[in-house]
Design a protein that fits this description.
With 239 residues, the protein is mostly beta strands. 9% of the residues lie in helices and 44% in strands.
């Protein structure tokens, strides 16, 4: 993408009659992105078309006469990001992902520049929980390991629970830290603990006894045990 002008835009609206998106540039100017220049993925329904609204995106300027709305495209940016992820082999590569939506069975994530992936419920954490969004709400940034790639669909499947940061050695038994409560853990219909996020790659499990915590609570913890697999620290409350 040499000799191209890349700008940050916010997708303001979709002009259905004109078949284009209306975007706002950071400098206050307006631009248009044709529907077929917005994504390398086909638009199978209106839900996907309108899914770009209010999102901040990168785009390439195609025409700019200084006054009239700019004409832009996102295709080369997405193709470059996809090539970057695939470079050297994608499987087992760890990438940062942003949660953009969820179903009962999975998290749908953006790997950057709207490259899509999915993390199935069984690949989120190794503990019982109700809904994937309870663990990671929309907007959460997490690390995930690529499990597979479908070339025809340009679509990635990933696992979050298979990631354990190389920085795990910095954690030790007795270490004091803070974590964000993400989801309760159930056993036989009762809450027996909580999943706690420490960093995008490091998570923990804290056992509870008649203690009620809410998603999003930031709590002080002490490391009780360090697991080499499964992305978990065993945590406890400070004495």
């Amino acid at each position: 993408m040499e000799n191209t002008k890349i700008v940050n835009v916010t997708c303001r609206s979709y002009d259905k009659r004109g078949g284009r998106y209306v975007v706002d540039l950071e400098d206050g100017r307006k631009g248009y992105i044709a529907t077929n220049n917005m994504s390398i993925y086909p638009f199978k329904n209106e839900k996907k078309i309108y899914g770009f609204l209010r999102r901040s995106l990168r785009a390439i300027v195609l025409t700019d006469d200084g006054e009239n709305p700019l004409t832009l495209t996102r295709i080369p940016i997405m193709e470059a990001k996809l090539a970057e992820i695939l470079d050297g082999g994608a499987v087992k590569k760890v990438v940062e992902a942003t949660v953009i939506s969820a179903s009962d069975m999975a998290l749908y994530v953006d790997l950057g520049d709207c490259i899509s992936g999915i993390i199935y419920k069984t690949d989120i954490i190794s503990a019982g929980f109700s809904h994937p969004n309870d663990v990671y709400p929309v907007g959460s940034k997490i690390l995930a390991k690529i499990k597979g790639y479908q070339d025809e669909k340009k679509f990635f499947t990933l696992s979050h629970k298979d990631v354990f940061s190389k920085d795990k050695d910095q954690y030790y038994i007795g270490m004091h830290l803070e974590g964000t409560v993400r989801a309760p853990i159930y056993s036989n219909g009762k809450i027996t603990g909580y999943f706690v996020q420490i960093t995008p790659a490091i998570a923990g499990i804290v056992d509870v006894n008649d203690i009620r915590l809410d998603n999003g609570d930031i709590i002080p913890m002490v490391v009780k045990d360090v697991k080499a697999r499964g992305l978990k620290l065993r945590l406890q409350f400070p004495n």
